[in-house]
Predict the structure.
Amino acid sequence: MAKGKDVRITVILECTGCVRNGVNKVSTGISRYITEKNRHNTPNRLELRKFCPFCYKHMIHGEIKK
């Protein structure tokens, strides 16, 4: 009764502001969040507004490949 692919998958969200700017010279890294998404409800890439501690503001975090 097991299905071939899981419906709920784990995805990594990465700050688009840090990646575009090449990370500020003051900051030490890139903000990343781990979350889950439903493959049937959101087949395209997930984008959420979350707080980036390196940019010190809310930025768009987009789904990246593992």
Observations:
- Residues 8-17+28-62 form a domain with the Rubrerythrin, domain 2 fold (CATH 2.20.28.120).
- Residues 6 and 12 are 17 Å apart (CA to CA).
